[in-house]
Write a structure and sequence with these properties.
alpha+beta, 6 strands, about 260 residues, six-stranded antiparallel beta sheet, disordered N terminus
Length: about 260
């Protein structure tokens, strides 16, 4: 049997326009981009997130979706001043967000807020240029990995399009992160020699790196929420939640059945 191959463009047009249903896609050997879930069904939400990330993690400019895995971060300020170091870190490649898993999803229909926490194992590599007290410049590479819980808080509203179909409109997000354990960090030999030759110990750098790794994670999570926002513009609200009627009823009458 000949394998049918559809581009991401085709899948989004089909699913976004509801020309085919999720069952139709399954019958021809394709997975849908989203699986509609009850907003309190965490296992279903995990599966839906996995499907969405599978098809979109590389980004798609036509639909205003950014690449998240792999993801490039050109530069990010680093404060290692406690150790007398000035580090310029950039040209970073972040991997692992494709395989992130929902850790918590809480949708408060009473005030239109969402708290989304996902767990991911991130790996990062990039360039480092270091100077001690503005002298003795050294350069090299680093690689780091660690487990992170990334949390996004945002507001939402429901808005009808010109066809009378409900869409979620997602407001600005606030992103935070929490490390699970201690991230590993390795520097290229010449750079490590320059960093540790005086009073700095690997332990001292490690402690400061924890905070920097959190900053990397928070920066990397920004396009994740951006893509959710773009998906909300493309797909009707019913593509995300099968209990949309409950959500709308609460917004209208404050009545949510459990």
């Amino acid at each position: 049997m000949k394998t049918l191959r559809f581009t991401l463009f085709s899948l989004i047009v089909f699913a976004g326009s509801w020309l085919v249903s999720s069952d139709d896609l399954s019958r021809i050997g394709l997975e849908p981009l989203l699986k509609a879930c009850h907003d309190r069904d965490l296992e279903c939400l995990k599966k839906s997130t996995g499907l969405f990330l599978k098809w979109t993690h590389k980004g798609h400019p036509k639909f205003n979706m950014l690449p998240i895995d792999p993801q490039n971060i050109p530069s990010l300020d680093a404060d290692f001043s406690k150790s007398g170091l000035a580090l310029e870190i950039g040209n970073m490649t972040v991997k692992g967000l494709r395989d992130q898993d929902i850790h918590q999803f809480k949708m408060e229909v009473s005030d239109g807020t969402v708290k989304l926490t996902t767990a991911a194992k991130l790996s990062v590599d990039g360039d480092v240029r270091a100077a001690r007290n503005k002298k003795h410049h050294s350069g090299g590479r680093f690689s780091s990995s660690g487990d992170v819980l990334g949390t996004a808080l945002y507001n939402y509203t429901l808005q009808k399009d010109n066809k009378g179909i409900d869409h979620f409109v997602i407001g600005p997000e606030t992103i935070s992160s929490e490390l699970v354990g201690t991230p590993t960090i390795m520097f290229s030999p010449n750079l490590a020699s320059a960093l540790f030759k005086n009073h700095n110990s690997p332990k001292e750098i490690e402690e400061q790196w924890k905070e920097y790794f959190r900053k990397i994670a928070e920066k990397a999570y920004v396009p994740v929420i951006h893509n959710i926002r773009s998906a909300a513009n493309i797909f009707p609200a019913s593509a995300f939640f099968k209990n949309l009627h409950e959500i709308k009823a609460f917004e209208s009458h404050g009545d949510r059945h459990h």
